[in-house]
Amino acid sequence: MSTAAQRFLQDAAIKSADLLHREVIRRGMDSYDAAHLKGRARIKDWEAARQRCREIKREAINHLDRYLLQFEEKVIARGGHVFWAANSEEACTYVKNLATRLGVRTVVKSKSMVTEEIRLSPALEKAGIKVWETDLGEFIVQLRDEPPYHIVTPAMHLNRSQIAQLFREKLDPAIDSDDPVDLMAVARRKLREAFFAAEMGISGANFLVADAGVVAISTNEGNGRLCTSVPPIHVVVTGIEKVIPRLEDLAVLWPVLATSGTGQGITTYSTLIGGPRRAGETDGPEEFHVVLVDNGRSALLADAEQREVLHCIRCGACLNICPVFRHVGGHTYGTTYPGPIGSVLTPHLNGIKEFKHLSFASSLCGACSSVCPVKIDLHHHLLQNRRNATEAGATKSSERAMFRIWRAAMGSPSLYALGGWTVRKSLRLLYALGLAETFLDPMRVWNRYRSSMPLPSESFRAKWRKNRAASSS
Amino acid sequence: MPQAQAEAQTKETPSENSSRDRILQQIRAGLRTVVPEPPALASDRVIFEPVANPLERFQQECVLNLMECALTADRAASARQLSQVLQSLPEGEIFVQDDPSLRQLIEVAAPGRPIRWSSQGAPAEASQATITLADALIAQTGSILVTAGCGGRGASVIAPCHIVYATVDQLVPDLTTALSRASRDGILDRNSFACVISGSSRTADIEKILVQGAHGPRRLVVILQRES
User: Fold this and answer.
1) What is the pLDDT of residues A207-264, one digit of tens each?
2) Shortest Cα distance from B205 to chain A (angstroms)?
């Protein structure tokens, strides 16, 4: 059984060489880049906006207990239910039991990365409940039995003809167009049936507003609206870090989230929901439940360096700008949250031993930190993860042995000179015998993809001495 | 429910908030770690360009949001405008928020159309259009703010066309004003739902190509009347 790190390396090699994938991602990212820059230009002081968003989130996270309780009190007062789940299992069990108790057979879901994180859909399907993803991108990856490729645009790795082919296979063999307008129409017709048949709608939340006691959900397609309006039960599944202090905070968070996510000035439907249908209201669910998922988040509060990772609003900007993401693609990460934020967060949620390699798979160029709308210092957190992994002993014994030898050599000039001489001589012999790039070649990782490095005729120390002697004479 | 099943369920279900205290304790313990505060934002920084002319800005933003905004002089002009929009739609039932001002308007603009009033329940899936009022219009983003009081939740999303009847004096300059007012007036205590809607439903999930009309309306029409 291969490790997550081995799978990452394999998939990264395959994806970087997949020309169709490269083309689809390049086009998607080009159009994002253009929209993102145009959107940013519409905000008078973008840096001030980022700073403001960071302050809002810091205020919320630094008083997380108080704001969560304020939110909870308001929701309960309106007849809603709030369930606190320590981990995935508790959250899934709560939703599954609720569904079973209320006789739910069909669930419609709007996009939610937390439900992916806790693997809610498989848990419900195991209980015999049919789950429909209703965001177009999520619907496409669900039909392919794949996880989302990207946290904002889940199907950005596919082009229209691949999607048309998928719809022909899974929905209707008579589909003869690959125009996105027609494909959307097919999905709309299919999912309309689901919306009106479902007994439960499940959504995520972009923000939990403490003072108003409402969840804020941003969607463009309107699927989130239907999920939370039509079925008789609405369940919100979200992370505890989504809370913000005041309703007015959305006046800057909504535009900044939309700008960073898609380049829009504001998401088409910026919805606020505070409870079940009230007496006298025309429609809306009779039951309203909010599941607050911890799943490792509260442990991050004690991390003085990385507490701010909880500020993340999941806009996807760091994925889009990341040169690593653009080459290896979202699925290669093998995590719910890909890209820089995923590489920082996953070791905290799923263990540093298994996921430390993600923090090493970065050039630390800092592009992610430069675009983050809440100014998370992502690339420094990657560096800290590397240090933490090493300190936790999550390194290979061979690596530790190499560093011990290196340290000894660095501490003794004669030992260092001897080592250099030995390596130069033995490599020269190895290459003379034509053994470059074979398993005997310690430089094979480098030499495999490049012309082999020329070996110096003498050591740096010898050259240094010669040059000094020449210049002083 | 048979007893065995009921027992199995109680055993399986964590009692309503069994983890609540543990999570809160862990949060409080974590927050005892002191994290240095970076300097605060200077108070004179202006994030969004102030909106000088709300009506003009609203109309500009409507164009960007791909919504239709028709400015009318008075109620009679609004009725003519509404009638034109309805004539462009297929035959069939329309859903209207049950409000005296809309009843008057419909009488003139849609004689003979089958109407379902919000007092009779949620809009049918096959509705050709929905007609509602708005709580406010937001110039900065070209948005309408609707609440559950505007004909319910489905009224702004179920039909392929959503028509909003509003007056110019409902315009507020920006999101901050709209949200502070919503907060002050307790709009979310009186309504289980509110939504800032900025255009018709859309997606760009296939090759990042914009498709108007996803799961919600393809058209969002605002009939904006000068006279209140």
Assistant:
1) 999 999 999 999 999 999 999 999 999 999 999 999 999 999 999 999 999 999 999 9
2) 5
Among the residue ranges A292-306, A361-375, A385-399, B129-143, the one predicted with the least confidence is: A385-399
* A238 neighbors A114 (Cβ within 8 angstroms): yes
Looking at the complex, report in whole angstroms how far the Cα of residue B169 sits from the nearest Cα belonging to chain A.
21
What count of other Cβ atoms lies within 10 Å of the Cβ of residue A345? 26
Residue B107 has pLDDT above 70, yes or no: yes
- Is there a contact between A284 and B148 if contact means CB atoms under 8 Å apart? yes
**Which residue from B minimizes the CA distance to A186?**
B214
Q: What is the mean pLDDT of residues A424-453?
A: 83
User: In which order are the strands placed within the sheet that holds B129-132?
Assistant: B68-72, B219-225, B161-167, B129-132, B94-96, B115-117
Identify the residue whose tokens are 């709560």: A94
Instruction: Judge whether A189 is closer than 8 Å to chain B, CB to CB.
Output: no
Per-residue pLDDT reduced to its tens digit, A13-24: 999 999 999 999
Give chain A positions within 8 Å (CB) of B195. Answer: 225, 269-272
> Looking at per-residue confidence, does B37 or A54 come out higher?
A54
Contacts of A132 in chain B (CB under 8 A): none
The ipTM estimated for the assembled molecules is: 0.93
Q: How many residues does chain A have?
A: 473
Q: Decide if B203 and A282 are in contact by the 8 Å CB cutoff.
A: no
Q: Does B103 touch chain A (CB under 8 A)?
A: no
Compute the distance between CA of residue A228 and CA of residue B153 in angstroms, rounded to an integer.
8
List the end-to-end C-alpha distance of chain A, in Å, as a whole number.
64
User: Which chain B positions have a beta carbon within 8 Å of A24's beta carbon?
Assistant: 207
Q: Residue B189 to residues A211, B147, B148, B163: CA-CA distances in angstroms?
A: 11, 11, 11, 26
Q: How confident is the model at residue A473 (pLDDT cuts 50, 70, 90)?
A: low
Q: Kindly list the domain boundaries of chain A, sorted by start residue.
A: 42-295, 413-472
Domain ranges of chain B: 54-225
Q: Which fold has domain B54-225?
A: Rossmann fold (3.40.50)
pLDDT at A334 over 60: yes
Taking contacts as CB-CB distances below 8 angstroms, the residues of chain B near A221 are 201-203, 205, 214-216
For an interface test with A, which of B191, B203, B218 has the most A Cβ atoms less than 10 Å from its Cβ?
B203
What's A42-295's CATH class? alpha beta
DSSP B167: E
pLDDT the model gives residue A454: 79
Cα–Cα distance, A9 to A135 (Å, whole number): 31
Picking from A247, A259, A214, the residue whose alpha carbon sits closest to that of residue A373 is A259
Q: Check residues B8 and A202 and name the one with the higher pLDDT.
A: A202
Q: What is the DSSP string of A308-324?
A: GGGG-----HHHHH-HH
Give the chain B residue whose CA is nearest to the CA of A269: B197
